[in-house]
Amino acid sequence: MSGEPLLEVTNLVKHFPVKSGVIVDRVVAHVKAVDGVSLTINEGETLGLVGESGCGKSTLSRTILQLTTPTSGSVKFLGEELVGRSRRSLRPVRRQMQMIFQDPYASLNPRKRVGQIIGEPMELHGLASGRDVDRRVQELLDRVGLSAEHASRYPHEFSGGQRQRIGIARALALEPKLIIADEPVSALDVSVQAQIVNLLKNLQSELGLSYLFVAHDLGVVRHVSDRVAVMYLGRIVESAPSAKLYDQPLHPYSNALLSAVPIPDPKLNVARERLVLEGDVPSPIDPPSGCHFHTRCPWATEVCTVDDPQLEELEAAHVAACHHPRNLVAQN
What we know:
Layout: E1 7-20, E2 26-41, E3 46-50, H1 57-64, E4 72-77, E5 80-81, H2 87-94, E6 97-100, H3 114-124, H4 131-143, H5 160-172, E7 178-182, H6 190-207, E8 210-215, H7 218-224, E9 227-232, E10 235-241, H8 242-247, H9 252-259, H10 266-271, H11 302-306, E11 312-315, E12 318-320
Parallel strand pairs: 3-8, 3-9, 6-7, 7-8
Antiparallel strand pairs: 1-2, 1-4, 4-5, 9-10, 10-12, 11-12
Keywords: ATP-binding, Nucleotide-binding, Transport
Organism: Mycobacterium yunnanensis
GO biological process, one term: peptide transport
């Protein structure tokens, strides 16, 4: 993983207009779903993206793929700018950037057989035709732990875990370099979650894939990610190598998220200090001044209410946007 990043996102913004009016619609405000996000993903790497529901994780994923047109900012894939390009010119790039959706029930066309769902993308992009499509579909089904006979069935004939395997096979059909997994296991039973996560890790080793793994389950993210980025109210507030962020989180929000993760040892789980956040997540239409987290932060001071902290490297490869970071190792 050297040289130019596979994916480079710089100051990406997506604001949705809020309109009002009976005869003539007029814009009265904006929902700041993604508010200046920057991140990179290298080849063969998994970046975990975590945060509470509604913080903008899914909107960020769709905006990176240009399924949602960004308000401003830059998205470069293999050094090529994607923002502002036409649908036609994006088609070759989209072949190399695929998505695994959260809901395995809604993401598959119920009127098509599994063989069609997986095979049609290959035909549309000219990767295979005729019997080659059937052969490739069977190979992909086998790779994700299904059998060739499943190609003739409809999605409703499968369990949630099997449907997600079909979704993974569809994502692999175009031989992508990057897969964005938008909470791919949140709708599955715990036992099935482990199977899907292990499948994704094995596929990464075999095919050299890169992942943006979006989730709110920090235990799952720790298991799969090389680096983790924490998102709050449309912004990245902390990013670090996985082990470093879990052992020494700097941002108070990261501390709060991690304190809610159960520890397998019951005695340690009861004895540890919990950081419980008070209040609700502020509205993305009218976020607080200064640090967006200060209304819920137990360590906030006056400076937090007026000065918006920027991401900066507080330790090696560990960045955070906070005036009062926690767990800093004393520098000699």
